């Protein structure tokens, strides 16, 4: 069975540093292509390119790069692959107590403490913040020792000071506190990632999770705040956004390539999620990019 073991990622800080800072050139960070989790908080900056943002139960599309902050043990999937066409990707990982526990009690750290609390549900930052902070992340990565640490705290403070962000997982999101749930949910998420173009029945996904159908439905709703059907539909709609934006395919082809086997159902579901028709979305996206 594919992905029968959930991916727990062990993260080691850079030598001589209290946190990890990594730079990946295009296509280089492909190891993160399965759903995985780790106790470290993670800040990811993707310079250029477009792709799927898969964090917790939120699946969304990004274009022209991305800047996201993900809290401890929040399951997520890689941002970039061979189709992203990004210039590079910066990944910063740090334990919530990497500066010690008492420092977070200082009044100067109050904003950053609140930021880390919000990050438990995943945060995506706006266009302007993404560009400004992206440059600072590169500068920080190229610095050494104490200068690197000071620049990193300045980055966290800048992110904590802005209102230009969006929380990705609305409502109470349970996964960051119950790691045993991560193992089961990662199995489900990876299965959907690999099979969303096919029909996935509640019977087969419940069997995969080793649960009866009614128990599975209650469990999935409690964990993700959405039904399994809603989650799969979001996965398919997000894939269709990518195809509409990037591929010269007809809308009917996009529908079937995204796992929908009924064109009118695809149109109806697309409008529910995006508030416009597929053709209108493609037209507006192309106008925006021009």
Question: How far is the first residue's CA from the last residue's CA?
Answer: 44 Å
- Residue fraction in strands: 15-25%
Q: Return Rg in Å.
A: 19 Å
In DSSP terms (H or I, runs of 4 or more residues), the helix count works out at 10
Domain module count: 2
CATH architecture assignment name of the largest domain? Sandwich
Main sheet specs: 6 strands, antiparallel
How would you characterize the overall build of this protein?
It is a single chain. This protein has 290 residues and is an alpha+beta fold. The chain folds into two domains: 7-167, Sandwich (Jelly Rolls); 196-289, Homeodomain-like (Arc Repressor Mutant, subunit A, Orthogonal Bundle). It is built from ten helices and ten strands. The strands form three sheets. Strands 2-8-4-7-9-10 form a six-stranded antiparallel β-sheet, with helices on one face. The chain has a two-stranded parallel sheet with strand order 1-3. Strands 5-6 form a two-stranded antiparallel sheet. Strand 5 (51-55) and strand 6 (58-62) form a beta hairpin. The chain is globular, with a radius of gyration of 19 Å. The chain starts with 6 loop residues before the first strand and ends with a helix.
A few lines on this structure:
With 290 residues, the protein is an alpha+beta fold. Helices cover 44% and strands 16% of the residues. A hairpin with a 2-residue loop joins β5 (51-55) and β6 (58-62).
Write the layout of secondary structure elements.
Blueprint: E1 7-8, E2 20-25, E3 36-37, E4 41-47, E5 51-55, E6 58-62, E7 66-70, E8 88-94, H1 110-118, E9 123-125, H2 127-142, H3 145-161, E10 165-167, H4 179-195, H5 202-208, H6 213-224, H7 228-246, H8 251-257, H9 263-274, H10 278-289
Parallel strand pairs: 1-3
Antiparallel strand pairs: 2-8, 4-7, 4-8, 5-6, 7-9, 9-10
Helix pairs in contact: 1-3, 2-3, 5-6
